[in-house]
Amino acid sequence: TNKQFQKSVENIEYCQSKIKDLDIKEMEEMKNTAQKYSDYKKIHFDERNKIIRNELPHFWKTAFVNHPQIEELLTEEDVESIDYLVDLYVEDFEDIRAGYFLHFEFSTNPYFTNTVITKEYHLMDKNHKVLGKKEPISVSSEIKWKPDMDLLAKKKKDKKKRKTFSAFFSWFTDNEDPASDELAEVIKEDLWLNPLQYFLDIEAD
Amino acid sequence: TNKQFQKSVENIEYCQSKIKDLDIKEMEEMKNTAQKYSDYKKIHFDERNKIIRNELPHFWKTAFVNHPQIEELLTEEDVESIDYLVDLYVEDFEDIRAGYFLHFEFSTNPYFTNTVITKEYHLMDKNHKVLGKKEPISVSSEIKWKPDMDLLAKKKKDKKKRKTFSAFFSWFTDNEDPASDELAEVIKEDLWLNPLQYFLDIEAD
Question: Which region is the signal sequence (chains A, B) (predicted)?
């Protein structure tokens, strides 16, 4: 009968609501676990970065140059500017699923006045849903170039008799297609996780 | 000096080993959480499937036919055979990251003698590493067709004056390219999670 049918449908709806509740709890628990470990790991990343900054000059430049995928991208100009990079760090958003920052901290350098430049990747949409197959969004700090030092000004500087160009800063300022941003992936998932192998130029274990 | 350099490198290695340990613990904890909730949810999925099987005849056929992506694929022959589907269930591997099964349970039917046919998806390689960008592997049960009832035999059966063909069973037996197996995705991530909306042919909330 129709009443029986209705009852069966309601019973299924009850099962579905239980499953939905459990899904929400599971996502919450996963998020908390990720955040907990992110905090635990941060202590060691910070300690590592302190050693790099204070005891190992040219660490990041060397790691960049020895990294097979990153090296391909670097121009001479890039290598010169990246030698002023004293700290690279990846920072998760407060809700770790929502996105992350790539921070690049530079010492005083001839190119720009910023100390830290940041590129951030947003992986969630406005409704706080994780962007699955949807496009992420990236945003980058404005680089405050010193006069005549803009590495992205592509026109020939007659005075200096050289073309200034930077693939690294091109990537940094390009937010057109963050979904296929391979360099961000390489920095976050490889270089940041274990840069020592590239600094020492040894085979990864 | 070289000794200082060596010491700094060792200190970084120590940080990296701590980070690696935390990564392993995090993965373990994530796996345990996923498994715990999978068990919790299974109770409700089982209850739901019991109601479907015992109280709502033609449930799965109706849901299949009303599902916009699945419906596109179904031939008349498929719809006839799928009406014998009494239970659909998705089962995770013991290690939930390693893969999953799609089980299709049929009542006695004119087409084949199997009771349950299963298609399984392996998402990890031999070293128990989750297959990231690597290809998954799928394996399907052998279907024991009754004489002259093979829905995959494409040649015209003169006796019955019809072409027997099934897009559903073609998909089921095709393990060539599991990475782009959209039907498996739809079954696992949509139809299985909430089939009621398709059974009732209502808008999803």
Answer: none
